[in-house]
Amino acid sequence: MFYTEALYLASWSYIIARLTSLFHIFCYRDVTCRHSLLHSRGGKMAPTHVLRCCQRGLAWIPVIFIALVVCWSYYAYVVELCIFTIPSIGEQIVYLIFFHLSFVMFVWSYWKTIFTKPANPSKEFCLPKAEKERYEKEERPESQQEILWRAASSLPLYTRTGAGAIRYCDRCQVIKPDRCHHCSACDMCVLKMDHHCPWVNNCVGFSNYKFFILFLAYSLVYCLFIAATVLQYFIKFWTNELTDTPAKFHVLFLFFVAAMFCISILSLFSYHLWLVGKNRSTIEAFRAPVFRTGSDKNGFSLGFRKNIAQVFGDQKKYWLLPVFTSQGDGLTFPTRLVNTDVEQATVTLQSEPSKSAADITVSPLSESQNRLLSNEQHANNVGDHLANNTLKSAESETITISMESES
Prior knowledge:
The chain is mainly α and 407 residues long. Helix content is 54%, strand content 5%. The chain has helices spanning 2-40, 48-59, 61-83, 89-115, 129-137, 141-151, 209-238, 246-278, 282-286, 304-312, 345-348, 375-391, and strands at 159-160, 168-169, 174-175, 181-183, 188-190, 195-197, 202-204, 290-291, 294-295. Strands 1-8-9 form a 3-stranded antiparallel beta sheet, with no helix packed on it. It has a two-stranded antiparallel sheet with strand order 2-3. α1 (2-40) packs across α8 (246-278) and α5 (129-137) packs antiparallel against α6 (141-151).
């Protein structure tokens, strides 16, 4: 009888978590499809702002669900377990002290992850009014790219699209900084975007990535502490050493919920620790960033210690606190690539007769350098690119680079 009840509660806890996640995905897809139908039918369906409000309201369902689970876990642990079940006062005090420490840090980091606004590109990445009008009037992609290349000549941009073009967001009408991506759920470009998390109803990026890591860490500690301290009383209820009381249901359910969330959070937390050690975002882990020298999944990796400092900062005393200490401004990032550009190979690279292009040594940049190339060198590269584009035919999209040996 007791085993059936336990299995029933565990099944329902898993079903609720899965249905909430699937419901959130369905809501986003459904609203997106309706938004597309609205434009295709000339606005005959409900107004766009109504659908947008519904989308924003539905997006809070997972957050509300987590908040309710946390509130119930607080009541079940403090009242039902510590006050009504644990007989020893000393044990109660010790459990309550450590429980509230983990609870406060968990709620604090969760709050910061939810309500920290994602960082957006600055105004310098917007096209000037005249260039913007020219860009919108142009129908040929080649001409549009010419405009973007000229506008990007003064910007610290060193990543490209897969085709080698300037990364531009037509939705936000900005040139994307390095590691910046457009979030369709938030409808904005987010600096160093990692992913959009439905459980925090926010985009995880440069401004709150540290908070998100701490949220995973403290939620894991919170669940582990609850599962470890509840286990002995779970066994006592299982073996009927304790009489059936209203606390029995709460203790049983509390252990299953804590164990379930602990397993799921552990895998996610481990994955993001690996990403931090490699200095990659979730997007970059699936699609390597493309530099002028080609795609490189380790292009932003500076070594394990420096990668950690990129997210948590230089002062270790603030690492475990959900306060912003990440390095940089989110617009430019130091890289390990050399100060060379394959587009300048015929001008700047002179290979010896016994050396090929593959023999050129790659050396890391100094820590003080916060850009892949200097703006002056970047401007020269853009000028060379524009000059090359005027020489090639409109049909050809391939740039041939020759490596001339010293005579």
